[in-house]
Amino acid sequence: MEKATDWGKSAKAQLYERWPKTETGEPEAPALLCNCKSLDLADELKINMLEAYGIPCLRIYPGDGGFGKLILGMSGQGVDIYVPASLLEDAQTLSSAQAEEVSD
């Protein structure tokens, strides 16, 4: 839930605050969950579902994908979705459950 004091913060700042930290206070290493093609909004659905379960997600557009996302509204090379390494197994379980529901 967003607080009134969060208004105006960038999405990257909010992600940094939610990302798990190590004992030294450094952000935990990210782990690659998957590469999603952006054609059918599967990436947005997957990220929103993971975020709803409290798993923060980092999006990285490989190659020139960031430019394609900016100009065309989608990346031709898809998007790499990263999650905290400690939550990778949970994210994989949730993602596989989502894939089973879609294929039924």
Strands ordered across the widest β-sheet: 1-3-2
User: What CATH architecture label of the domain at 29-94 applies?
Assistant: 2-Layer Sandwich
> What is the N-to-C order of secondary-structure elements (H for helix, E for strand)?
HEHEHEH
Based on Cα principal axes, name the global outline: globular
How many β-strands, per DSSP?
Answer: 3
As a percent range, the share of strand residues is: 15-25%
Provide an overview of this structure.
The chain is α+β, with helices and mostly antiparallel strands and 104 residues long. The chain has a domain at 29-94: Alpha-Beta Plaits, CATH 3.30.70. It is 41% helix and 15% strand. It has four helices and three strands. The chain has helices at residues 11-18, 42-52, 65-72, 88-103; strands at 30-36, 58-60, 79-84. It is globular and about 40 Å long. The model has no long low-confidence stretch (mean pLDDT 80).
Secondary-structure map with pairings?
Blueprint: H1 11-18, E1 30-36, H2 42-52, E2 58-60, H3 65-72, E3 79-84, H4 88-103
Antiparallel strand pairs: 1-3, 2-3
List key phrases describing it.
41% helix, single chain, Alpha-Beta Plaits, three-stranded antiparallel beta sheet, 4 helices
Short description:
The protein is 41% helix and 15% strand. It is built from four helices and three strands; from the N terminus they run H-E-H-E-H-E-H. It has helices at residues 11-18, 42-52, 65-72, 88-103; strands at residues 30-36, 58-60, 79-84.
